[in-house]
Target: Tripartite motif-containing protein 47
Amino acid sequence: MDELGAGIAQSRRTVALIKSAAVAERERVSRLFAEAAAILQGFQAEVLSFIDEGEATMLGRSQGDLRRQEGQRSRLSRARRNLGQVPEADSVSFLQELLELRLALEEGCGPGPGPPRELSFTKSSQAVQVVRDGLASACTSQWEQLQGLGSDEDGLQKPGTEADAESQDPESANSLESEAPRDYFLKFAYIVDLDSDTADKFLQLFGTKGVKRVLCPINYPESPTRFTHCEQVLGEGALDRGTYYWEVEIIEGWVSVGVMAEDFSPQEPYDRGRLGRNAHSCCLQWNGRSFSVWFHGLELLLPHPFSPTVGICLEYADRALAFYAVRDGKMSLLRRLKTSRARRSGTPASPVDPFQSRLDSHFAGLFTHRLKPAFFLESVDAHLQIGPLKKSCISVLKRR
Model:
């Protein structure tokens, strides 16, 4: 009975601890959800205000033209009516009305300016759609991680456990890993030049190395390879064998960098044509808060902090694409995309990773195409520069 009494006391303390921890966690979660809702509401208010301001500005001009044309038509109608009512013998009145009609005609009665070629606020829905997609993907990813944690302490998976060791099997690694110095990658340096015939009309190119997203469309010549629904641009030349390495400097905004199949249609709609949202491309995205990788419409959030310079290494022989943070000549692996090897018999199964499952199913098919470096500028004023592959620090641009 003494032993049972001690056990009961311990169990009661455990029950109380679980209940108090659950209450505290509910409060924290509720507070975080409230903060997230406040952020979304603030963003909604800003976007709606942006639409209202754009509408008011454009309506002011268009309604002014409308009132001017209606006033001209009214004066002409009145002058014509008055002229028709003048008696034939009253030459003085006839000349006066004729002069009035002439003055009305001299004001001009041609059509006003046509509708604007681009409404500045019509890109708002695309920005909100990007936020919605990112939120939905993040919620799905985090929920799957929560479900995989288990309900007891013994089942909790911690970094560095067998599951991580399985994913970092040395047999699946090669020389292009995070501990390799930057000089090693420079042996595979590939000079990327932007192809102006692929640039969307809302992208302004600076030579062949820089690109920025703008509000006003640029009058590019017609081209069958030009993107029409996504603010994207490709690099010149197509890659189909060997190893290639290039670097990109993120100057401002939401930017995605990666590769895209040469034969992918640039006329695909926005939801399927964006980099990483189809089976013909994949990318690393910086969304202003965090890095993530996209492939075939699925996103995987990465825990790494922002790095303005990103290295991309395409390995055709290994059918792999790796992204690195480059800082002061040091390489830090963000993520290496590659199909996993078949599990050896007798090896325990690890929790299912939806993103890796998507890679295992479709990623190898990407390498059956010739690939091109690809860039997607998601936010207004997004700006990137293809870095010069020097051995010294490549950050040569002054940031705002």
Observations:
- The first strand starts at residue 203 and ends at 206.
